[in-house]
Target: 2-dehydro-3-deoxy-D-gluconate 5-dehydrogenase
Amino acid sequence: MERVALVTGGSRGIGRAIVEELLRRGFRVGVAARQPQEAVEELQAQGWPVFAVPTDLAQDPPQGVVRRTIAQAGGLHALVHAAGINVRKPALELSYEEWRRVLYLHLDVAFLLAQAAAPAMAQAGWGRVLFIGSVTTFSGGGPVRIPAYTTAKTGLLGLTRALAKEWAPLGIRVNLLCPGYVKTEFTAAVWENPELYGPITARIPLGRWAAPEEIARVGGFLCSEEADYLTGQAVVADGGFLAY
Model:
C-alpha cells in the first residue's frame, strides 16, 4: 500500500530534505509551501511521486491544506510540520504582533493540521505526526535571543505528549524532532555572523553544524514502521550541543 505524507515548509531547508527522505522510503509526498512548484518540478523530473499543495499557512486555514492533500492523494498517513518563521529580537524589543505571528505558525498551525489529519490516519489504522521542534526548547535559545521561537517550540513538546497519549489507541504515533544548529537559508543570519557562529560551533562536540539531510534521516525514521514503539518523544539531533 502506498502511503501518503504531507510536509509543510517542504520546498526548502529541513522540510525539503525530509520530503526527499520520505520519497526514498516509499511515500507519496505533498509539498505544502507558499511556492512549492520549483521544488516539486525538480523532484518530479527525477521520477518521484510528489505533488504541490500551495498555501500560505500564515493566512490560509491549515485544515484546507489537509483536505486538499487527501482529495488529491486519496488518504494521509504522515504529517510533518516543518514550516516556520523566526524573529530574532530580545524580549524587551519584541512586539506582541511579532510574538503572536511566531507562536501561531509554529504552535497553533501544528495543532490545527494534526487535528485535521488525525481522522484519515485513524481510518487507515496507521499514522505518523512529526513536529519539527528545536534544541532551543532545552537551551533557552543559547546566544541567540529568540524568546518567541523558543516558547513556540517548547509548546510543541506539550502538544506532542498530549496528542501521543490521546491518539495511541488510534494507531497514530506523535513525536517531536528537535534539531540543533543546521546550515540552511533559515539560519543564515546566525551562521553568517562570526560573533554567533563561533561560540555556537565551539559548543558542538562534533565540531560542525548539521546538514539538512542528517536531520531528515532522523525524521524519516520517526515516520517509518521502525518507529512503531516510539511516541510522545522529543528526539534531539544536535551533534552533542546539549552535552557540552
The CA atoms of residues 70 and 76 lie 6 Å apart. The first strand starts at residue 3 and ends at 8.
